[in-house]
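Structure in, sequence out. Go:
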């Protein structure tokens, strides 16, 4: 995939225009498979097309085992499809490989919280917070995350973790 093609697709995704991104992806020549898979996952995530995210991310996770974005996308899609236990199994199976990635650890916290596994959720949320380079941004994201509601305190917009 040429740099200009990637840039155009990334701009579309950045502006939330997943339809244009998908059209450009279909037209792209000399496609680098890992870039193509990443961009396709991003477009399908924005579109809320969870079955497609799951299919693309599952295949890419098997092929590109050193990239955490694919198991993360796959797990999130499974969660959105109502299969949170499956999502946790996906992440737990590769957790040792990605235990120092904030996004991965944060997603584990979300999925444990969604499964009412509070102690595990608190543990991984605290770890994700430590891994975050920007505590204010992390707090803003976590306070809006529906899956983490179980960890919010009643009296303040803080967390038990």
């Amino acid at each position: 995939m040429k740099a200009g093609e990637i840039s155009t697709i990334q701009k579309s995704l950045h502006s939330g225009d997943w339809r244009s991104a998908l059209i450009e992806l279909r037209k792209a020549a000399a496609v680098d498979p890992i870039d193509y898979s990443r961009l396709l996952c991003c477009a399908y995530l924005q579109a809320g097309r969870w079955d497609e995210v799951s299919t693309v991310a599952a295949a890419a996770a098997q092929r590109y085992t050193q990239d955490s974005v694919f198991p993360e996308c796959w797990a999130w899609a499974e969660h959105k499809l109502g299969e949170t236990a499956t999502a946790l199994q996906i992440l737990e199976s590769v957790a040792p490989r990605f235990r120092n990635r904030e996004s991965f650890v944060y997603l584990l916290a979300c999925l444990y919280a969604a499964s009412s596994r509070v102690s595990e959720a608190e543990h991984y949320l605290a770890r994700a917070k430590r891994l975050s380079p920007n505590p204010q941004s992390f707090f803003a994201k976590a306070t809006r995350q529906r899956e983490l509601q179980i960890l919010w305190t009643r009296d303040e917009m803080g967390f038990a973790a």
